[in-house]
Amino acid sequence: MNKQQLAAKIWESANQMRSKIEANDYKDYILGFIFYKFLSDKQVQFLLQNDFDNELISKVSEADADTVKFVQDELGYFIAYDNLFSTWVNDGKDFDIAYVRDSLSAFSRPRGSNL
Question: N6 adenine-specific DNA methyltransferase N-terminal domain: from which residue to which, for each copy (predicted)?
Answer without folding.
Answer: 6-90
